[in-house]
# Entry
Amino acid sequence: MTETTTPPRSEPLLTVDNLSTHFTIGAGRLRAVDGVSFSLQPGQTMGIVGESGCGKTVLSRTIMRLNLGNNIHTSGHVNFLGKDLLNLPMSEMTDIWGQEVAMVFQDPMTSLNPVVKIGRQVHEHVRKHLGASKTEATELAIELLKSVRIPEAETAIDAYPHELSGGMRQRVSIAIALACSPKLLFADEPTTALDVTVQHQILNLLGMQQQERSMAMVLVTHDLGVVAGRTDEILVMYAGKIVEQAKTAGIFHRTSHPYTEALLRSIPKTDQPSHTRLAAIAGRPPTLITTPKGCSFSPRCPYAQQRCFEEEPPLTESDQGHLTACWYQVGTAENREAWETNLASGRLATLAVAEGQIVDETAVKLTSGDS
Amino acid sequence: MGKILIVRLARLIATLFAVSLLTFLLVEQLPGDPVIALLGPEGLYDWDTVERIREELKLNDPTLVRYGRWVGDVLQGDLGKSYITDQPVADAIRDRVPVTLELALLATVIAAVCAVPIGAFSAYREGGRLDRLLSGFTTAALSIPGFVAAIFFIWLFTLKFNWFPSTGWNRITDKGLWANLKTAILPASALALAPLAVNARLIRADMIGTLKEDYVLSARAKGLKSRYILMRHALRPSALTAVTVFGLQLGGLIGGTVVIETIFALPGLGTRLISAIYQRDVLMIQGITLFVATVYVVVNTAVDLLYLALDPRIRRQ
Ligand SMILES: Nc1ncnc2c1ncn2[C@@H]1O[C@H](COP(=O)(O)OP(=O)(O)OP(=O)(O)O)[C@@H](O)[C@H]1O
Ligand SMILES: [Mg+2]
# Structure
């Protein structure tokens, strides 16, 4: 939908360079985000995909500098609009937040203040950033609520969050985020807490608003199905690291990391009979505290060979603009060979995939068909 | 809503009955006699007069009969007269209550106004130096008895600086607000110290929880200033416990002024109650106790209603 054939090559809006966020916790050092780099052009959409706990939220909060606590170690650089975000004084940061960059949170049940009326929550930062008067701000709030399709916006501004449904609340959060027309919007799993039907409405609303305002967006999700067709580029994260990065079409059509392949396999398909077993990814994501040498996905990978357990694969360009961190990339001859070897030796992770393969092939085909 | 109010009212009346009966019985247990107190030591030698006065005041009736008679009078709006001075109890209360009420209110205001920023900022800087400093202060404020603080204030502000008088009271109506505040500020501050510390701690604890809420993070992500977030977003959801306690404290303060009024020699209800107790002036004791209890219960009911105003989620149910 928002995919463009030739992306404009202008100055990037956001550049993230070798960003790491570690937490010191009782058990040691938790590497929630480890050496992430990417850049985002104005008006483009970047999808960040990965399982729960892989560091998506920490990554977006680190970029936005919204991580709280005194056990946090951040390194690397974030450049936004020519500013070094991580080293900006707080007073300048409060001018960027809400005005240049905004965020839509995962759970609209908790991200709105229960004791503050909707109207004020929508316009208070407009008054601060744009110096609007109270009446101007109220009018703008009504207009914004209308633009996110909230019925009876005039009365909604006097409502409290608990008087609205989850979908409506998320619309309010979007209105809040859009209020000052930011150049960049972070949407951290904006629909995970909502019904399937509402999910699509919210995502469409986000897409439309984004095009209207030519705003860049980072769309975080654990569901590749959500980002399909809504993003220009996709980052696949595993255990705090980027394992694959490519244009959306590249991710779906020339999937090259086994983890991405596994994610694609696990997209629930609404047009499948509901009793079809979902192909989940065998095993658990690593704890992030102990970093095993080698590839962090290797314990769960159906293709893993000796090398994968010993040497960590670097993120390298496999195709033009397509980055993958894997020794045995999907679609290569080495990969097929690794598969056969593992099948023959009876590796459990491989057998698990092989058993569910009939279902999975249709899933993969369907996905690549409609993207 | 109507049903809630009726239940509340019934509970209120039951409480007042219990309090007044208990007071009556307790005073009865005290050694001594109002008539002796009235006549002075000579009374001991003039037994006939004592008996005559006892008859006149109907003091020889059984306790419960006298209590019943008192209740009957109160229900008709008559609190009776002092045995000793013949002053109607209602007049005495009317005369004395402005002092006590002002002290209690002023103390509540001081406690609230200081506790909010102390609690909020120590929560905001949880574990930091400011937090530890303030927490040391609240611990001290809690462990020092009010009368010690009062004596310290007198030493500091009267003897050292001579800013405020240590005794006496200027009525607003006679001398104006400023002169009045000058006499009220020291006793009110001494009175405020403990509730201030309690409130600051409650607000801090609540606020630490609130600051971890998602909506505080989303307020930050909107670029709002820390102080604005603290006061406009975090405080109100954190204030529910504190408001309940404010109510309990206001009621408690009205009773708690007794000691402070005595130290500063203020013409309030507390000092009047003390002298009534010394003189076994039963009706005066009953009247003042009933009044204080009524204020206490009414204030707490009002606080419950304030709860509704603070949290729209409760209002709806
Ligand atoms: N303040 C913190 N202190 C310690 N560890 C943290 C903190 N915040 C997050 N983590 C850890 O960092 C890791 C990444 O968490 P994150 O919330 O970014 O995952 P996520 O990819 O957003 O998952 P989800 O899909 O569930 O939202 C988790 O293991 C989490 O426990
Ligand atoms: Mg998350």
